[in-house]
Amino acid sequence: MIRSAEIVNAEIRQLWAGGSLPPEVRDRYHQLVVEWAEALRAESESAELAA
After folding, report:
1. What is the DSSP string of 1-51?
2. Contact predicate 12/33, CB 8 Å
3. Which of the listed residues 22, 24, 32, 48 has the most CB atoms within 10 Å of its CB?
4. Which of these, 32, 9, 29, 10, lies nearest to 21 by C-alpha position?
5. Rounded CA gap, 5 and 40, in Å?
6. Model pTM?
């Protein structure tokens, strides 16, 4: 199941707390960016089907 883009974005923002991305979370950050893009795509497709 794909999490919503909003939820994934909130997790991304938490990683950036303090204004920089610590090296130990960079891999997680990249995974989240991919997940966020997939969620946006799925939400967009869902909205198009509903229209």
Report:
1. -PPPHHHHHHHHHHHTTTSS--GGGHHHHHHHHHHHHHHHHHHHHHHHHH-
2. yes
3. 32
4. 29
5. 6
6. 0.85
**Tens-place pLDDT, residues 2-27:** 899 999 999 999 999 889 999 999 99
Is residue 36 within 8 Å of 7, Cβ to Cβ?
no
Task: List, in order, residues 6 or more apart from 2 with CB less than 8 Å away.
Answer: 35, 38, 39, 42
Contact between 38 and 21 (Cβ < 8 Å): no
Cα 44–Cα 38–Cα 1 angle in degrees, nearest 5: 100
